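anyone seen this seq b4? input:
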Amino acid sequence: MNVSLGRTTVIYFIFIVVAIIYLMRLFYIQVIDKSYELSANNNVLRLVIDYPSRGLIYDRNGKLLVFNEPVYDLMIIPKQAKDNDTVELCKLIGISKEDYIEKFKKAKSYSPVKASIFEKQLSIVTYATFQEKLYKFPGFYVQPRTLRKYPDPMAAHLFGYIGEVDSATTHKNPYYRDGDYIGKSGIEQSYEQVLRGQRGVRRVMVDVFNREKGSFQGGRYDTAAVAGESLMITIDAELQRYAEKLFQNKVGAVVAIEPSTGEILACVSNPSYDPNLLVGRQRTKNYAHLLFDPSKPLFNRALMAYYPPGSTFKLINDLIGEQEGVLFPSTSYYCDGGYHMGSLTVKCDARHGSIALESAIAHSCNTYHCYVFRSIVDQKRFKSTEEGYNVWRNHVLTFGIGKRLYSDLPQELKGNVPTVEYYDKYFGKGRWRSSTVVSLSIGQGELGITPLQMANTMCIIANRGYFYIPHIMKKVGDKSQKDKKFTEKNHTDIRPEYYDIVQDGMQKVLESGTAAASQIKGITVLGKTGTAQNPGKDHSLFVGFAPRENPKIAIGIMVENGGWGSDWAAPIATLMMEKYLNDTIARPALEKRMFEGVINPKVYQPKREVLRDTVQKIVPIRPVLKAL
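predicted toks r here
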């Protein structure tokens, strides 16, 4: 009897232990281990990301420049993608069988049970065809998103482009996930956080045929996408388009700024490209093509290239001379066709005879401005050339040259104003004089200035001594939300009254000087031509603003290998001024010549080129320092 009772107890005990094991296993499966729940949910629930529309972009007059176009990502859950007609699928979405196999392996390696992108950016036409047959392909579904569209294909460098985030970005910023897009350059990069909006998430019920059956629990756990803020930028679309047309078949850049605000009115870098090329399924192919194009269409010359400013720099040299008390309106020097100092000769393009400041600006006398530079650096109050040069250089820096302006456009470089340390290293400490570096006075040597900085110096002269940081953003949404730094005046260390005589000389440039052929009837234009030497044909430059009283537009322009400043740069700049101020062109013959003009220089890379001095018998060719 006791034996029978013992056996019964053992059997009960075994059943209890087995029951406990089963209960524990059920508890583990249902509460602790989420893989089965995930598999079940993937069969009935689908997590759909609602990507927000990026903010629209308008010009200063409310013209729509950038909007969004719907596209669709084809998503896959590899574990559910069984027994599909892969040939039909490939035909519907336009890929090969090999592509299908590769994409499937990639998705499966990511996760057999989690959704990932199988094919990006199906067009609305492809989607319409595919949607009707989607039920035939279990494991696949379509997720909507938007791409940028540019109705008027211009200002590619300004707008920039968007691209898929990389792993470094997703690790650094938790907002972004694999498959997200982010601004890579231009406005899209600068104002990414404003434009991107906030993504939403929907939980959708699906049946065994992969068809949506409605929201899970009435959308209780869904979050709505929030569209990005629209942006009104400072660009005048008509002026931008006109400038790009003037620059066709030419290489270089032009920047136009409103002096009273620092707002950028136009910013052109040429060669350029159609911004629509860098959206859609062909983006990667198109980007590679642009990247290896020898004309460098992706390179933004307006912000990233620094050029020798040539004679346009003489204006700054003169202002420094006035501030230092060594130059006055009546100061005269004799020009016999060049500046001579021992064995050194800096050629001038004419024999001007005895010439004073105003005429020296109007006729761009090299001799005069070399004397001005020497009078600044070699003042008796300085103990050494290095001390005098440092004073001169520090004045130059207050014009925003040789340092970043901190515009709201990315990739802006600072240009170059060589330091004492550079010359000490190159020539040896104490072994160089003002005559050694006198080519700086006429905008040659190691000087490097970006077109953005050229335009900004004109804002300074137009305002008689101050500038607002150039910027592209005018309004976010319905409110003007400019960064405070864009509304603050930045002053040079030149007294305001010294700008008057310089402005007088600049006015004479257009009336009777080097740019007289580019005069605009009825508008007082102040400007300065420049011809910058380099290893190829000379560059054509012009800086200026108009009108003289209450200036509305300031321009800095560089036409690579364009020859004299009066040949191409001055006509293009004044046509832009006329278009902006009058909205009509009264010089159709000049306009036609600029439209049809073709300049085919060798591909020029201004950041790396060696610039040739205009001086003779000074030193070997000196390399331009790379901007950091």
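The CA atoms of residues 468 and 487 lie 7 Å apart. DSSP finds 21 helices and 23 strands in the chain. kinda curious what u guys think
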